Predict the structure.
Amino acid sequence: MSRGTQPNQIIFQTANIDDKIYIKEQTGKFQKIRRYLASILTIIFIGLPFVPYQGQQAILFDVGAQKLHLFSWILYPHDLLIFVYLFIIAAFALFYISNRYGRIWCGYLCPQTIWSLLFFWLQFRVEGNAQAQKRLDKLPFGASKVIRKGIKHGLWLLVSLFTATTFMSYFLPATQLYSELFTGQLAALYWGWILTFMACTYINAGWIKEKMCEHMCPYSRFQSAMVNEATKQITYDNSRGEPRGPRKLSKPNAQVQIHDAAHEKLHKLSQNKQRTNSLGDCVDCNLCVQVCPVGIDIRQGFQYECISCGLCIDACDQVMSRFNYAKGLIRYHGKVKGKRSHSLAYIGLIGIFSVLFIIWMANRPMFELNIIKDRNVLYRVVDDQRIENTFELKLINKTQLKETFTLSLKGVQGFELVSDKPIEIDADSRTSVLVNVLSPIDHKAKFVPFEFVLRSDNHAISSKSVFHGK
Ligand code: SF4
Ligand code: SF4
């Protein structure tokens, strides 16, 4: 067996997809950080749909009306370039984080990890620790097993249902969704979506779990292209830890309690075996493997399955404290003076796309005017002397204020609008208006390009069109 590899060397090994991993529940610094982050992100996810802005839901993907409310922004399908910018910026931010800190997105922030963490927590509360879970799985089906498994799956399904309704409240106003849900008036279509999202959550976080990170997520496959010797990765200190082996616990650390079967086993091991000077600091307790959510042994070197969660660090630090050894046998490690050119390039690209994004947002028109020429009747002769064309003006108001425009023509002499009635448009809405334009007497030209201009106290917009003659 390989006894450790270089920090930036990644091992690819394929796990049997049917192998079930029984994880030992771990406490410690990094687990605490994961739980805090997971709680904060979950609260944001649940709470955001209830945040109001100017009398309506601040964030709402209104699929029916084909628009997206993002606080003061109202985005229509042709505004979705915003997402291109945001995805590019997010992608470079992810590359930068991966280059500096490895796969910490996966270990701390990814929804798959957060929901799996929650499902594991429920499993520990219902079925007990890893050994108890193993024993329960080996039991033949009986009342106790059915009840425990039933409670666990019931809780998982409840969490999945709540996740699905929360997700749905980004597409249907939360107040409407919950009032229709609790009064039994929710349309079958919405129920269909909720049940689909619920099934996805339950299957992903309850059944697929770490296999999603290992076999399905593309990020785990291309992350190796983003790391170098400066990347802080989870590393087992091979020179310090090897040769590994169990040994006697000569001076137990009173602060560390024997709080479960694994620590008990460790204690007995240390009582029975003598430490020799030829041993390294690794006492071969296997705790770093037992707590690993993806079931790998980090002592074999960095592996692509590792999600940089730090649980093996927590476990190993506790063991080191117990033996009065220095912590950090397993730690986040990267060369301080390693290559930083990739990081700088990513920061540069994030900066460039952020500036482009700000410029695009600042110049984004708050009103849009589209002109559609009546194609059924290109022109009509009026009073045997003048020619009339009909146009449809399609106007979009992306602001939160009602606006009144006056219409005029630009670029033509002697042409007239049949009506000079002002055009009103409500806040956050679309309207369409039919407009007739009359040529001067004895007009001869076949095509006359011109512009429609809409003016209000605060805005002016124009759009080009063509007048058709005989
Ligand atoms: S937890 Fe630490 S001491 Fe125990 S096996 Fe892992 S590396 Fe060795
Ligand atoms: S080896 Fe396992 S426990 Fe350690 S950081 Fe990687 S995924 Fe987490």
Summary: The first strand starts at residue 10 and ends at 11. The pocket of iron/sulfur cluster (ligand 1) is lined by residues 236, 241, 244, 282-288, 299, 315-316, 319, 329-330 (CB under 6 Å).
